Amino acid sequence: MYVTKESGQKEKLNFYKIKTSILFAGGSESLANKAVREVREKAYPGIRTRDILHIVLGVLREEPGVAQRYSLKRAIMILGPTGFPFERFVARLLREYGYKTRIDMFIPGKCVVQEVDVLAVKDGKKYMVECKYHNSPGNRTDLKVVMYTHARFLDIQHKGFTQAWLITNTRCTSEAEIYARCNGIRIISWNYPPNEGLEKMLMQKNLYPITSLESLTLKIRERLVMANLMMVSDILTNSMFYLKMKTRLPKKILEDLREEARQVLQLNNKQADNKVV
């Protein structure tokens, strides 16, 4: 049976992939098997992947925190609607991996002033990080974005930059990946590089975006992002006084968010332990 992706492309329905993804998100064997059975019963030729996600999530909510971990890609998609929250999110992600970061830097190049989304420094090396955010899973980052990133890097390379990075929340086209490899640009995207993609970086350190919390309304999400509370862990590691001061949200709402955050961040022993950065 074939399913329809958000891009309109067709691919075979992969039950093994569904099951392993659920196990990776911390779901039990019985829960994963139940979700697969539900999909088998309800799927039809050409069903959209988002409808399959809806079926799976309906089952996963039976075990606390699993649905939120499983829908990580969707959570990043709704960080927007603009790319600014994603830039903050990437900066925070890199800090968790030992980088010092700054966002929205304006750096004079040989020709023009270049805006750098994230400046990252580690072990004496300085990286120009271009963040490309998409709010639809069907959109891929294409060749022109990588070429644009490369050109901007060449203009400011004399300022001590070691390498250009492109970090995106979807996938890149094969042309974009080839061009990046040829010119020494590092791409971090969904499932790329293999076993070192964005989703692996996040799950290995329990770095779930704040939008993983299903109880968020649009207003609450905006308050949290503006307060630079980008990760689910921020709800637990900051004091209630700090959260109330930064967000101006009622204590009851914050307490409910904390309870859901505890469920999402339950240790998941099934996560891969490959080092990615």
Describe the structure.
With 277 residues, the protein is of the alpha/beta class. Among the domains are: 2-67, no CATH class; 84-204, Trna Endonuclease, Chain: A, domain 1 (3-Layer(aba) Sandwich). 46% of the residues lie in helices and 16% in strands. The protein has a five-stranded mixed sheet with strand order 3-4-5-6-7, with helices on both faces. Helix 8 links the parallel strand 6 and strand 7 (186-188). Helix 1 (15-24) packs antiparallel against helix 2 (29-42), helix 2 crosses helix 3 (49-60) and helix 7 (143-156) packs parallel to helix 8 (174-182). The longest helix is centred in the N-terminal third of the chain and has 14 residues, at 29-42. The radius of gyration is 20 Å and the shape is globular. 33% of the residues are buried. The model is unreliable at 267-277 (pLDDT under 50).
